[in-house]
Amino acid sequence: MSDAMTMLTKTPMPSRDESEISPLERLPQHKLLVGLFLPMQEGAWSPSRAPRSTSWTFDYIARCTIRAEELGFDLAFGLAQWLSKGGYGGEMRFREHEIDPIIANTALAAITKSIVLINTVHILYAWHPLHLAKFGAAIDHISGGRWGVNVVTGYKPSEYRMFGLAPIEHDLRYEMADEFTTIMKRLWADDEDLTFDGRYWKTERAFLAPKPGPRRPFLVNAASSGAGLDYAAKHSDIIFITSPSGADPFKACESLPSHNAKIKSLANGYGRKVKTIINPHVICRPTEKEAKAAYQEILENEDTVAADNFVKTFVSGDTASWRGHSRAQWVIGGNVHLVGTPEQIVDWFIKLQAAGCDGVQVNFFDYLPDLEFFGKEVFPLMKQAGLRS
């Protein structure tokens, strides 16, 4: 154990225990939480040229977020990325444009009232814990306690090199993330200066004022590996999970119970409670035939070059997530594909909840019209089914 980690172990933490400072109590007590995966990057999740209105621009994202809040969504989530010119390529230059999620969420905090706003930060790309602690405290105040950070270490060598950094070995990344997050949480909680001589970060007499509100910001992580899940169980409130068996919902619902149970058991080992959320791509239409036709249209209009590059980037790295997904499933996007009528979508939500998922973070292909249909047709059925209070 490093001297810094020994110091953290021996130095008393603030008197508030983890259950008292956990922000999960701020979430609505629905049987199944519902979040929206915002399309902050061009093309969102589908390298397809099928017709749609979806846009990465802030005006469009703001309209999506405000409407999601009006419809009753609990969360809105923004992805972060670092890509070279042309994005993933192809005619559509997939994901070349992206609005930064931490900046966008700060603006969204000022124009929303109840929805929780979560954005990704790649903490190992030259961030210091004091930076994120200070920025996070500010957004927490602007939002009234509705902000959270999805802590990501990054795994793509090309991204590290953009910042003049060498790629970092997988498990070491999570050792670094543990130290980073521990310091950040101390800065949010401690009422005295923090001096920390760490293995990866150092600070002398660092202090943060104002602190976040009565409860610290939400901490989120998406992990599948042993090291990643251990980090998430120790620090995160919400864990974005991936189906170990691909996007087929039948197979997903078979593999998810043990996966969710493992994660929650790890958290219990740290004396903590966590919520797990999965990311379905929802294609919902009045009839099953229409929904399947929409699914097929996305596939038939794939941008082959963009799709090939998109898949290659993820499967060639050392991440443990998404390994069970086929190429066609990558073209659709999302972790689990739910295709059908409103009644069928709700049936799948019931099955996912029974499999141990505490929430769904949905994405769509054509965001505003799909969101509107979902809110008006699916939400009432979820309430009837007891998934929403």
UniProtKB/TrEMBL annotation:
Keyword annotations: Flavoprotein, FMN, Monooxygenase, Oxidoreductase
Oxidoreductase in keyword set: yes
Keyword Chaperone among record annotations: no
One GO molecular-function entry: oxidoreductase activity, acting on paired donors, with incorporation or reduction of molecular oxygen
Region (Disordered): 1-21
Domain Luciferase-like: 35-358
Cited InterPro entries: Luciferase-like_dom, Luciferase-like_sf, SsuD_RutA_monooxygenase
The name this protein goes by in its record: FMNH2-dependent dimethyl sulfone monooxygenase
Species this protein is from: Bradyrhizobium canariense
